[in-house]
Write a structure and sequence with these properties.
Distance between the termini: 28 Å
Number of helices: 15
Structural class: alpha/beta
Radius of gyration: 33 Å
């Protein structure tokens, strides 16, 4: 069964979440998103005081979302991760695992039992040797973050470093080519990713929008909340010249920190030439960097403004999605890995982390089976009562010892009447099995077709009413999907001979009838409903 996936990027000052479902043609579609910014509540991102606002934001997000039936992938600070690319010695398929183990022990700067680690292999162009990029994170860091999320009610099926989540997004959006430099300026740091000769390398610079806010506080003697609003352009500064001076100084500092990391990588690989820059500004307090980067690096600067290879449900399109596009890139990358379509699929967490979302379904099926067993036992008890009554009637058919000669009186007693009533009851009880068999057929076909059963009204009559629903847009493709599941009922046996389509409607919840009033606002998770009339013939079970 295909599940939707939430990619949730939780930083020291904001939570960004994107819910993705995979279409039948393999294209991801965003069906929900949310942003919770608590920058004004966090004066020092290095202080433990940030935990309180972060926890409140997570609990608020969890309380407003249905996460139990979705995969959830969360982010991890990139500076906690380690990555290094090495050329492996020659090895066969049989000896490769041992070679990787040995190289990991030599290149990862921690004992392997203290880290979660994985590798990504790539062929060297034109050569027989193989490169391996090793990734590692201390186990204590991963376990602690997952535990804190769990305390706030946020489940996690997977966790990934933010630079790798951003790398997966860029790969899916076809933004990477040889010599691509990806720069992501956030509030607490700058993610630097270099893609060269089919491999990617990242570093995190501890500088970002927080430095701009601090510089404004010092220059204009204002408090933290005022500095955040000024940096975000939400308030006016009476001294525009002084504001521009502070902005240029911070822009220069941020770019210098990033280029220092870039020079380190290029110096070790003289063949690397930066051909373009893909720029993300992931927080509202980051000063605009596009013009300065283009002037300093003298290469084209691409600033993605929207999704090209990811569909967005029309019901969730809004100004907030466009304003926070840079912040959603990492969250979308997390969701892509949760959906199994990411380019970098390294696993830096325990294999037992992923939840079994089929548990609730299995319990529901077990409950239905118990109900069916109860019906069968009740029918059996009714049958036993009928047999007991027949035996009693046989006794009554014999005249009493003192009334053998009173034939006229005995003939006036209709001793067969109770037997006829119980026989009719037993026959009627056999017909009551029909609704259960209709339910079994409907649930089997709905489960196989990946749709929901919103309602089933079945009795002993020749017809039944069925309502199917599925998540999607109200278009011909979604309707055809529901019709195909309904049509399958008539092909799978003599019980149901036809499924005649009826009314269709859209609601934000499962319902047996169209809503009386149109829903107010945007339906975050639209459920397309369609009613059918089933012709039931009551074939042999």
């Amino acid at each position: 069964m295909a599940y939707s996936v939430w990619g949730i990027d939780v930083t020291a000052v904001a939570l960004r979440g994107v819910r993705v479902v995979m279409e039948d043609d393999g294209v991801p579609r965003i069906v929900a998103w949310d942003v919770l910014d608590f920058t004004t509540d966090v004066e020092n991102i290095g202080s433990s005081a940030r935990v309180g606002p972060m926890s409140r934001a997570i609990r608020q997000f969890v309380s407003s979302k249905h996460l139990r039936n979705s995969r959830v992938w969360v982010s991890l600070r990139g500076e906690t991760g380690f990555n290094r690319t090495v050329v492996l010695p020659e090895a066969t398929d049989k000896t490769l695992p041992a070679v990787l183990q040995r190289e990991a022990e030599q290149n990862i700067p921690y004992p392997l039992h203290e880290v979660y680690w994985d590798q990504r292999l790539s062929d060297l162009s034109g050569e027989t040797r193989v490169e391996a990029t090793f990734y590692a994170v201390r186990r204590q860091i991963v376990d602690d973050r997952v535990r804190k999320f769990a305390q706030c009610g946020l489940p996690a099926d997977g966790i990934q470093l933010r630079p790798l989540a951003l790398l997966n997004f860029c790969a899916w959006e076809r933004l990477l080519e040889d010599g691509t430099l990806v720069l992501d300026f956030d509030y607490a740091g700058v993610h630097v990713i270099l893609h060269h000769e089919g491999r990617s390398w990242f570093r995190v610079v501890p500088a970002g929008g927080a430095d701009y806010v601090a510089a404004l506080r010092e220059r204009f003697s204002i408090n933290h909340a005022e500095a955040v609003n000024l940096a975000a352009g939400q308030s006016r500064c009476p001294d525009g010249a002084a504001l521009d001076q502070v902005k240029r100084r911070v822009q220069g500092m941020l770019l210098e920190e990033a280029t220092r990391v870039i020079r380190f990588y290029v110096s070790a690989r003289p063949s690397c030439r930066i051909r373009k820059v893909v720029l993300f500004e992931s927080h509202r307090c980051v000063p605009s960097m596009e013009a300065m980067i283009a002037g300093r690096l003298e290469v084209p600067v691409i600033v993605p403004r929207g999704f090209k290879h990811v569909r967005v449900d029309p019901d969730v399109v809004g100004p907030g999605l466009q304003e926070n596009f840079g912040a959603f890139a990492r969250a979308t990358g997390l969701a892509l890995q949760g959906a199994g379509v990411a380019d970098v699929k390294v696993q830096l967490f325990p294999a037992t982390l992923q939840r079994d979302l089929g548990v609730r379904l299995r319990w529901w099926v077990a409950a239905v089976l118990l109900v069916c067993v109860g019906l069968v036992l009740a029918a059996q008890r009714h049958g036993e009562s009928a047999e007991a009554l027949r035996a009693r009637v046989d006794v009554l058919r014999q005249p009493p010892a003192g009334a053998r000669n009173q034939d006229v009186e005995l003939r006036s007693i209709d001793v067969e009447a109770p037997l006829r009533r119980m026989t009719a009851l037993a026959e009627k009880n056999g017909e009551r099995d029909l609704p259960r068999r209709v339910l079994d057929a409907v649930m089997a076909n709905a489960g196989a077709g990946g749709v929901h059963v919103a309602a089933l009204e079945a009795s002993d009559g020749p017809t039944a009413r069925l309502v199917l629903a599925t998540v999607g847009a109200a278009d011909a493709a979604t309707t055809a999907k529901l019709d195909a599941v309904a049509a399958g009922l008539a092909r799978n046996g003599p019980l149901i001979s036809a499924a005649l389509p009826g009314a269709s409607w859209v609601a934000g919840y499962l319902c047996a009838r169209p809503p009386i009033a149109a829903p107010a606002g945007v339906i975050r998770v639209p459920l397309v409903h369609r009613a059918y009339t089933l012709e039931v013939h009551g074939g042999a079970p």
